Each structure stands twice: as structure tokens, then as C-alpha cells.
Amino acid sequence: MPSSLNRREFLRDMGLLGAGAATVAALGPIEALGESWSDQAGIAPRPPWVRTVDIPTVEIDWDFIYRFDERNTVRRGWSKYLDEESFKAVQELNSTSIYDLSKADKPGYSTRDIALYRSSGIGATQSFLGPDSVATPEENGLAPWTGTPEEASEMIRAALRAFGAATVGFVELDENTEKLIYAIDPDGKELVISEDQDVAEETETQRIIPKKARWVIVWTVQMSQEGMTRSPTPVGAATTAMAYAIGRATQSRLQGFLRGIGYYGLGEAQTNALGIAPGFGVLAGLGELSRLNRMISPEYGPMVRVFKMVTNLPVAPTKPIDAGIYNFCKSCKTCATYCPSGSLSTGDPSYETQGGWNRGGVKTWYENSLTCRNYWAEVGTNCGICFAVCPFSVKDRALIHQMVKGTIGTTTIFNGALAELSRTVYSPGKMDEPQKDPEEWWTLDYSEYGVNSTQGHGDA
Amino acid sequence: MLFWLILGLLLGAGALFIQKRGNIKLAWYDWLLLALALLFFMLAISNYYASLEELETRAASFLLLSFGLPGLILVAIVGIRIWRGRQKAVEAKA
């Protein structure tokens, strides 16, 4: 090999360098495609394997869907599904188990763990109409904000992200999607969609949504993977409580913002009120329905809480997505396998419901909410093991996660193997125990709220 | 960033070493195998450190092994080919 270059060799090497540069440049558009891919106003760019679709990946029979009474969920209607004696027993267990486990020196149930759990939910209040502390444009002598629905979507996404939301989507209410609004709120008030009324109102017995308010803003709030992986201990449950608290704050802020630009937002009067969160999340393209019978997002997996708000601000709806998640759940049964109460389905998706707490009309994996809730009473928390062990509950620093998600979004043939691999590598613990040491959590250099707020986003 | 800079310098030095040593002759498929090995090593190192940052030590070890081992095998194949080539050259001279 020559130790010095003549002109021909120099030109040859430059040619090779140029070929290398051209290869890199050729690869560039792939990256650029991933970064710039977005055909929907108001939704953040996503990787190419997250495809938008016209109908959700989960099958919905809208003829069988009706406006559900939220009090039929086990969250609110626990006593409906047990005889008086059994209910009394689980209630007693529910109020004492956390302290009994603490006294028995169960790891993750120390005094400080319980204090963390109990205090994580403290935060903003929430209401249907929202706070009136922000002046309307009229009150300030200003004109209301005007713009196209696309501009409105973009604006709401920016505001919500600043308020603490992770991802944001939009659904237009029509004769079908309207059925995802509850008929009765958790506190027994009727949710009335009124053609006669232009102004939203709350009375002693009703919450009135004007028919003119035709759009639903849907957003997610991240939960901490590092926290949740300590489920079912109070350390694990603290992140759920925290996400709900952040959700309440984002709701009130969004209501204030909408009021400030001359519109209104009608929110959840309390946790899980107003409408079916996973349903709206799926329709808005924030994720897909899963074996958990909850929404799994491509960015955070199930590590989110979903919130929604009805508004009279015309926004551009976002489409459902197909990122291969629903199909992956058909092969992966990790959540159902690890569920200590056996509440999750190990079978194929079906229209067959498990009890009065399921509304039906969706071909999904219906869960046994009663056995799930009873297990919560046993462990004194809201469990969360199924969320913690889900293969999509991963952080995004390692390149492997994008490689795996890209594979899942492209083909189904590796789904079974990838699920098995995930169990081996990320969830090696026993099924009814935390996957990581709860005591170790107290020694971590924890990020704000335990989440990576840049995960799934390009700009800081 | 510093890691990739150091890696780039090491790779450059390695390429220069091969170029300067005229007695190492590589076929085009040797370069291909080395490029693949390099890709595996980069994936192994990248995923290892990123998994440690994620506090996933089990995943870190697993990924280091999963990507590192194929890389080592590919380098070994090229190494054995070079060694055999030299042996043949020595035998031919003798």
C-alpha cells in the first residue's frame, strides 16, 4: 500500500468519501421522514411505523354502544357486584391491609412509602365548568381568538404540553362518538347533551353539554416507569396518584386557557367522569386498545393516564393509529400472566363481556374488574402490576426500544418471540411481587415526577 | 457525544493501521464482515450504556452479549482468514 497519495489515488479516495457521504445523505430522508411525519394538525411527529388509519385497529360495533352509567364501573359501583357481607369484608380489608402489611414489614410498605403514596395525589381540584379566575376576552375588551380548526389544534397542543400533558389528540363528536360520553357521572348527575342550550351549565342533578360543543380534546399524562415497576407497593401506586393530580391541574389550566380565548371546556367533575377515556384516546390516535382493555400509546406504552374535555372551540380531529400494538397483544400475554388476581383475559379479543362493569360493543379483552378491585383491597393500593410488566412500558434511551417497536409496527411474525424476550429481560421477578426493589427507589437520582418529559418529543 | 468522537478516532486509527501495514490484504467481503462487526459493536456499546442509564442492568448485560457476540464472531472470521492467508504465503515462500 502506498504511504503517499498521487493525484489519481487522492481523487479515488475522495470519490469513496463522496460515496460515503452520499450514503449518509441517502439515509437522511429516512430519519427526516420519521421526524417530519405528520399529516395531522396538532399531533406531534411520530416515527413512520406509527401509521394513521381511518378506523381503529380494535373492532367497534357502534350499534351496540350506548351511553354508559359510570356508576356501573367497579370503581364506583363495587358494592353492586358483591353481597352485603362480602362487600363489608373487602371494605374492611381495603382500609386496613396497607397498614397491616406495613406492620408485617412487607418491603415497600414502610411508613415513608405509605406517606409518599398518600401525598402524591394532593394537588389541583377539578370541576365540570372549570375555574373562572381567567378573564374572558370580552371582560378585557379584547376580541376572542379566531383561527382555522388546524390552527386551533396546534394551539391547544402547545398549551397542553406546557401545562404538563404528554400527547394530545382530538375527536369530533357525532352520533357514534357521542356515545362515549357517560349518561350518568360518578356522583349521579346526569350528563345531558342539549340542543336547546348554548351555554354549559351545572345544576343539582344535571350537567348540561350544549350540542354546539362538538369537539373533545384528549390528552395523556405520563406515569413513571421507574415508580410503576415497584407495583403493587405504595411506591408503585404513587405514580398513578401523581398522574391523576397532574391531570386535574392540566384540566383546570386548559379550562382557564379556553375561557381566556373566548371559548369553554367542560371537564371531568371528578376522576373518571365525563366519558370513557381509553375510547376517546384510541379514536384520537393517542394509542391502541390492548389486552389491558386500556390504551397503550406508541410513545409510553400504558404508562399514561388519559384525560378528556368537551369544547366549543372547533378543532381538527386526529385519526386513529396502527402501530402494531393491538396485534402484538394477541401474541403477548404478559399482563394477563403476571396479573395476581387473574383478572385479565388470556384468550382472543371478543365481544363477550365479563360483567355489568363492561359496556360491550367493542371486540376487546374484557377484564374482570371485580377480582381486580378485590385484589387492590388485599394489597392496599391500586396494584398496577399489569402496567409495570407490559413490554411497551419502557424508557426510550436505548436504541433497542425503537428497533423493537419498529419491528412490531411493521410485522407480526416476531411478536411472540419479542414478548418472551421482554419478560426474560425486563420482568424477571415473581408475578405478585415488585419487579424492582422498592427500598432502592429512595436512593435514585429521580427526575421530575419520575418521567422523561422529552420522551416522544423532538423539541425541548 | 465524546464517546462517539473517541470511537471515530479509534476507527480512523484502526483503518490507518490496516492501510499502512501492506502485508494485510482484505477481500471486499472481509470489509463487509468488518463493517457488520462494527455495526454490532456499536449497537452493543450503545444499548449497554443506554440500558444502564435506564437502570436496567439485566437488559444492559443481555444486550451487550446479544450484539457483542456476533460482532466478535465476525471479527474472528476475518482474523482467521488473514492468519490462514499469511500461513499460505509463508508456505508458498518456503
Average pLDDT of chain B works out at: 90
Would you tell me the overall average pLDDT of chain A? 91
Shape of chain B: elongated
Q: What class would the helix/strand composition of chain A place it in?
A: alpha+beta
How many DSSP E strands of chain B? 0
Q: Termini distance of chain A?
A: 49 Å
Radius of gyration of chain A over all CA atoms, rounded: 24 Å
Which regions of chain A contain 5 or more consecutive residues with pLDDT less than 50? 1-5, 10-37
Oligomer: heterodimer
Instruction: Report the C-alpha radius of gyration of chain B, rounded.
Output: 17 Å
**Coarse structural class of chain B:** mainly alpha
Tally the helices of chain A.
Answer: 15
Give a nutshell description of this structure.
The complex is a heterodimer of chains A (460) and B (94). Chain A is 38% helix and 10% strand. Chain A contains 15 helices and 13 strands.
Characterization of the model:
The complex is a heterodimer of chains A (460) and B (94). Chain A has 15 helices and 13 strands. Chain A has helices at residues 7-36, 74-77, 84-103, 111-120, 149-163, 225-228, 234-260, 277-283, 325-331, 334-338, 369-379, 385-389, 399-410, 415-426, 438-441; strands spanning 51-52, 59-60, 168-172, 190-194, 201-202, 206-210, 215-222, 265-266, 288-289, 295-296, 304-311, 321-322, 362-363. In chain A, strands 3-7-11-8 form a four-stranded antiparallel β-sheet, with helices on both faces. In chain A, helix 3 runs parallel beside helix 11 and helix 5 (149-163) crosses helix 7 (234-260). Chain A is globular, with a radius of gyration of 24 Å. The termini of chain A are far apart. Residues 1-5 and 10-37 of chain A have low confidence and may be disordered. Chain B is mostly helical.
